[in-house]
Design brief:
Structural class: alpha+beta
Number of strands: 10
Oligomer: single chain
Largest sheet: 5 strands, mixed
Shape: globular
Radius of gyration: 15 Å
Length: about 160
Amino acid sequence: MGYIAELREVVGTRPLIMAGACVLVFDDGGRLLLQRRSDSGDWGTIGGALEPGESLEEAAARELWEEAGLTARRFRLIDLFSGREMYYRYPHGDEVYNVMAVYEAIETEGIPRVNDREGLELAYFDPEAPIAELNPFTGLVLAKLGYRVHAQRKEA
């Protein structure tokens, strides 16, 4: 059981401040690797919360391995986000205010594969094109980074 899960046993679903890392992985064509999340069924970035004693970069490396089966020779810090708009409510009701370091994975090694229970599948997407079923929080983060990405509406 991870640190956040242990805290949840004490505080329930009420808002926590959660520090974590988001990892952007681009292929040679500039497409962004996203995972279909098992909790919400939509597409989101690779990443997650820090564990006690872990650096943000160590969390980025761990999450990249856990969620995509990839390693990176290094990480480039792109930005750091916090504040009111970084609020997120998970489908199961847990609430967080994220403090998020966004990294780009440089010189990734391995073949992307679902490596844990948090993801259902992995795929590359053009970060400037509409993405069907894009996680709204991922859309916010990518927009804050200057991408014109937006969720594509589902056909009825």
